Amino acid sequence: MNKMSPFKASEQLSHSVNSGEKRFFEETELPISILDDYKSAASETEYEISENTRRVYRSSFSIFTYYCNEHGLNSLPADPRSVISFIGHQKETIQARTGVQLSRQTLTTRLAAIRYFHIQAGFHSPTEHPLVIRVMRGLSRNKYRTVSDYDQQPIMYDELEMLLNVIDQHPQEITRARDKAIIQLGFQGGFRRSELAEIQVSHLSFLRNKLKVRLPYSKSNQQGQREWKDLPQTEPFSAFDAVKHWLAISKIQQGHLFRSLSRDGRQVRTYSVAKMKTSSSADFVTTESRNSGFLRGDDIYQMIRKYCSKAGLSHEFYGAHSLRSGCVTQLHENDKDHLYIMARTGHTDPRSLKHYLKPKD
User: Fold this and answer.
1) What is the pLDDT of residues 194-236, one digit of tens each?
2) Quick one: which of 17, 9, 129 has its CA closest to 81?
3) According to the lineage, what is the superkingdom (predicted)?
4) What is the model's pTM?
5) Tens digits of per-residue pLDDT, 127-180?
6) What is the DSSP letter of 165?
7) Mind giving me the DSSP string for 221-285?
């Protein structure tokens, strides 16, 4: 039987299979005949976390790596004391834009990145050391740190009308159509900006009195379970007509719903979606998408910030998440119960709504 030396358990799997306290059974050598099957399964690790999370983790780990290099420390694997020192440095960092210290959530994200890259490399994560855990627990209870203490304010009917009035001032009809569809769909459906960017034309169903939007995946639905949003046409600022008008004027029939426009705003840019493998190994596969012609989550974020600024709504307090927050708050103002709101936004725990619900006037 053919054997493959680069696929020996002692060489390729020793880190990933036996990195923890438990040891798993290993074949002495594996046959070349299963190599393609193994690589096919390993390629699924690309979808283990979202592309956005992967990007944030790379950025966070590069900050940690820079700190370690600066002080002659090893970043992978890292000593728990190096991680604690990194926390000490980061918690005192003052952000130039806001003048406040990094939040606990930001520090938690950076530790999550350290943990992720250690596990991927087959090392025990230093972030799980008891002293690191104690430091982070104490940090969460430290009320003397100067951090940002506000959330994005909800965009409700009054603010939504202000934004739509600003959009109406744009000279190009196709730009007006697209941006109104984004704003109204984001608000009525309580979508996250990443969800708005991923909506495909095939996800839409125009029924007699409602727009039905399918979400194959979302932050709270990462296993691809069936999830729909029913958006009544009778609600104020319904997205039904706005989305239909955008599809008619743009002549988009398939693919991503929200597309990039030319610089003058007169036409839809060329659209293409392709995927190209950039690196692979027996244990881990990563790919890079070569896509163009459609909006991404950051594009939608910047667009909403621009319109908020023009409408006189401070972009310091309003952003893309204000549409989702406004959806929850407005439905609450309209006397909808928690189950109705959760069905609209996709929340799975009623306690999550407490973060959004504001007292009624």
Assistant:
1) 899 999 999 999 999 999 999 876 555 555 566 789 999 999 9
2) 129
3) Bacteria
4) 0.66
5) 999 999 999 999 888 877 776 555 678 899 999 999 999 999 999 999 999 999
6) H
7) BTT----EEEEETTSTT-SHHHHHHHHHHHT--SSBSSB-B-TTSSSBPP-EEEEEEEEE-SS-E
**The token pair that represents 234 in the structure block:** 């009778």
Sequence-separated contacts (24+) of 127-131 with Cβ below 8 Å: 127/80, 127/83, 129/80, 129/83, 131/80, 131/84
State the greatest distance between any 2 C-alpha atoms of the chain, in Å, as a whole number.
77
Distance, in Å, from the CA atom of 318 to the CA atom of 187, rounded to the nearest integer, reads 13
Residue 162: Cβ within 10 Å count: 17
CB 215 within 8 A of CB 221: yes
And the tokens for 338?
A: 């928690």
- Fold annotation for 51-140: DNA polymerase; domain 1 (1.10.150)
Q: Which residues of 85-106 are buried (b: 16+ CB within 10 A; e: fewer)?
A: ebbeebbeeeeeeeeebbebeb
| Digit-coded pLDDT (tens) for 9-50 | 334 444 444 444 567 888 888 899 998 888 888 877 777 777
Start-end of CATH 1.10.443.10 domains in the chain: 157-259+294-355
Other beta carbons within 10 angstroms of residue 143's beta carbon come to: 6
**Nearest residue to 246 (alpha-carbon basis) of 155, 181, 306:** 181
Query: Residue written as tokens 């600022």?
Result: 237
CATH architecture for residues 157-259+294-355: Orthogonal Bundle (1.10)
* Cα–Cα distance, 218 to 216 (Å, whole number): 7
